[in-house]
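Objective 1.3, modelling of assemblies. Example input:
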Amino acid sequence: MKHKRFALVSLLPLLFSCAGANVDLNYVQELNANGDEDFVVLQLTDIHWNYSTNIKEASAYLNNTIKVAKELKGHIDLIEVTGDTLLVANKKIATTIYDLIDSWGIKWAFTFGNHDYEGEWSEAWMNELVSSSHYQNAVLPELVNKYDKVDGYSNYVINVKWGNDMNWQIYNIDTHNLVQQSGSYDYDYVHPNQVEWYKSQAELAKKADNTYTPSIAFFHIPTSEINDMKEEEKIGGIKDEKYCPGKTFSEFYGVAKERNCRGMFFGHDHSNDIVWKHEGVVYGYGVKANIELYSTEKDDVSITGCALYSLHKNGTFDLEHLIIDYDNMEQGKSSLSWEVKDL
Amino acid sequence: MSKKKYIAFIIEMVLFIIASLAFYQGFHYWMADIDGFKRIFKVCPMYLTYFLVTYVLFAYYFLTHQPNEEKRAKTLKVNGFGLTIGGGLVLVLVIVNMILGNYEFGNVSLIFPVDLIIIDVLVAAVGVFTIIKKSWILEKMPVICKEYSKPKWLTVLSRILAFLYVWIAEYFLGAILMCPTYIDFSAPAFGWTIPLYLLMILMSVVLFWHEYYLVRESAGQPIPKKNENITKIVLLSFATVVGLFVVVSDLFLGETTYYVSHNLQCILPIDYMISLNLGPRLLALCPLIALWFNFIMSMTLMKKKVAEPLS
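Predicted structure (C-alpha cells):
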C-alpha cells in the first residue's frame, strides 16, 4: 500500500522520498527440493501473540507443532507465516516470536496480516525484522518491497527447484490491513498494481514450452470473490464462522487461475479451516496456530495446528491439516486432522 | 507564596507527562485482553498498575484545585486511603500472578513484572505518606486555582468534560512521547499524519495553558487581558484550521492515501476494533470543544463578575 502518487501534494513531500534508492528489484528467491522428494511447506497463521500471551506455553505449542509435523513428513522445507503473528504488543514480543521461528532452522517466508500493524512498531521496522537481512532463515528480500512501487511490503516469489528444473512457484502477497471507506474500515484486498506485478512475475517464470509454472499463493485476507464460490467441492476442514474477506473486488483470483495457480491459501478467519475446489483451483484457510484472540473447538479439541502442503515434482500437491489440541499437545496429531492427496 | 504555586504547577505538569506515558501503556495492556477478557486475572493488574499513576495525578489535582479548606482535608483523606488501598491491592494481585507463574520475567519489558511492583509500591507509599503527613501537606501544599462562583450544573458539566478531555489528552500525549518506537518518517503518506500529531500535542498544550492561566490568577498575577485574548485566538485558530484540514483530508483523501492505517494503527486500536474511523475526528473536535467551552465559560463568568464582583 505505498500510495506514493499522493506524496507530491502532501505537506512535506521530502518526508516521502524513499524512492530513488538504487535497488535491484529482484523479487525472486530460490529454494531447492531434496533430490526427488516432495517440497514440504508448513503454514502457520494467526498466532496473535500480544501482551496477555503466556509466551512460555505458546512457544511450547509451536515447538511441538513443528516437531510433530517433522516426524510426520520427514522434513519441512519452508514455513509460511501468513499474517497476524502479532496483535497489540511491543518490539520485544515481536522479536521473541520471530527469534523462535528462526530458531527452528527451517527457511521461512512471511506475509503481513491486518493485526501485524497494531503493535508499537512501524511497518518498515517489521518488514526489516522479518527479512533475510535480519534472520538467516528468513527468505523475504527486505529492500525490494521497501523501494518498489507495488503496494505492500511482503510481495515476493519463491521458485522451487528440483535440480535445474523449476517446477513450482510460491507467491507471497501482502493483503495489507484495512481500507477506509466513508468513515468506516473494511478489510483490504490484493490491489490492481499487485495483480500486475503478479502477472509480470508469472510471465518471467514461463517454461520453455510457453506454459506457466504451477504455483500456489499465500496471503492473509481472502478477497471478496470467495463469497461467490459454492463449496460444492469441499476438500476438508470446517466452516465455523462467516467468511470475513475484504469487500473490494480483486482481479487476482481470475488472473492467477489463468496463470496456472493451483491453490490460494489464507488465514484471517480463526474458526474456519475449510478448503474447497472451485473451477479447478484449490482455495482454503490454513489452521490457526494458537488459541489467542478466539479459536474454535470440535469434540473438545481446539482446531489449532498447521497446514502442510507437499509439492510434488510433477506439479500436483498433497494437502494436510494437522490439528493438535492446545491443551493436550503432548498427544500430537488429533483424529480431527485430515489429508487429501494429489490435488 | 506565589513561588510555591508555580512549583506546584510545574509538579502537576511533570505528573501529567508521567501519567500520560503510564496511561498509554496501561491502555494498550487493556486492549490486549479486551476481546472476551479471557485473561483478565493476569492482565488486569498490568493495566491497573499503570492507571494508578493517572489516579496519582488526579489526587494531586483534587488537592491543589480545592480552595475550600474543609473539602480539601476530606479530599486528601479519601485519596490517601484510595491510593494506599489501590496500590496495595494491585500489588497483591501482581504477587499472586507471579506465584502462579502467570508473569514470565522480562517477556513484556526488560524488567517485567518488577516495573509493576515498583509502581504499585510507589503509589501505595504516596497514599501512606498522604495519610501520615496530612496536616503537613495541607499546610505546605498551595491551592493553585481561585474559587469561582458557577451554577451547579455548570460545575458538574465542566468536571465531566474535563475528565474526559484529560484522559484523551493523556492518551495522545503518551502516544506522542512513545512515537520513537513506531514513527517512520519515510512511511507512505506520512505527511498527512503531521496535522494529527499536531492536534495530539495541541490537546495537551490547551491543558497546560488552562492550568497556567489558573495559577497566574491564583498567584495574583493574572495574564494581561490582551495576552490572554491573543493566546485564545491563536489556539482557537490553530485548532480550527488544523482540525478542518484533518476532517476534510480524511473525508476526501483517507480512502486513497491510507495514511491512518499506514501510520497510526497502533495509536488508534479502538478504531480498528470497531471498524470506525473515529480517531481523527475525535482529535479534530476535542481541542475545539474544549476551547469553545472555556471561552463561553469565561464569558459567562466575566458577565457574572461585572454583575456581582467576586471578592
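The radius of gyration of chain B is 21 Å.
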